[in-house]
Amino acid sequence: xxxxxxxxxYERAVVFRLGRHIGTRGPGLVILIPFIDTGQRVDMxxxxxxxxxxxxxxxxxxxxDVDFVVFLQVQDPDSxxxxxxxFVVAVRNLATTSLRAVIGDLTVEDVLARREEINTRxxxxxxxxxxxxxxxxxxxxxxxxxxxxxxxxxxxxLLTADRTKRAQITESEGERQAAINVAEGNKQSAILEAEGVxxxxxxxxxxxxxxxILEAEGxxxxxxxIYETAQGVDSKTMGLQYLDMMKQLGAGESTKWIIPMDLAxxxxxxxxxxxxxxxxxxxxxxxxxNGDS
Length: 293
Description:
Elements: E1 4-7, E2 11-17, E3 20-25, E4 28-31, E5 37-43, E6 47-57, E7 63-74, H1 77-82, H2 87-104, H3 108-113, H4 115-130, E8 135-147, H5 149-231, H6 235-250, H7 262-292
């Protein structure tokens, strides 16, 4: 630095007097004593370190090329000048060794699948060392991970086999679900059919029951009517009915008859009736004779 210097807003000047650190100056005008004071500018802005592809070995002995960037910023200009000769080179080398250490703890599948975790672990691991240099590691971002060609071919075959397996599993699950749906439909159909048969049987039984009830009621009414009619029939009418029955029996082809005992009493009453009628007829004839004489 010159003896009269203008330190920009994003810079700081670390000043030494006779080789001894006396403090940090800036931003603004900084005046140094000629031949006694010296200064070193430090850029306080955030900047990026781009690392070329680094070949690392995974936990399962696979080679992968990793391309990443580191975002960092000077927080303490005094530490950045006093504690490290060239913090940019130091951070670059530290990032490379930290990357190989992190990749070595993971398999190739984990390296490809857990990129965010690798970024976080790298940032933490680098920050543990750079904090004493007055450097803050803002973030570490992996831009590209490229396995070796043989690993890529093997992973392609594995991916194809996995997709085929998933397709077969999905197809079998679909067939299984379809079979379940068909069985469930058959079950519901059988249940509905059984309920229909049950309802039909109940309706038929109810109809038969109502028909029997109506038939019994009709028979009861018929018996009641017969009973009521029989109450008004006298013995003479019953005798005439028995005579009519005997007439029908005589017209038949039977040679033997079985006559109930009650028929004799009815016949006796009928005989008395017929005798009375005959006497009445005889008296009528005698009266006519007497009248003629």
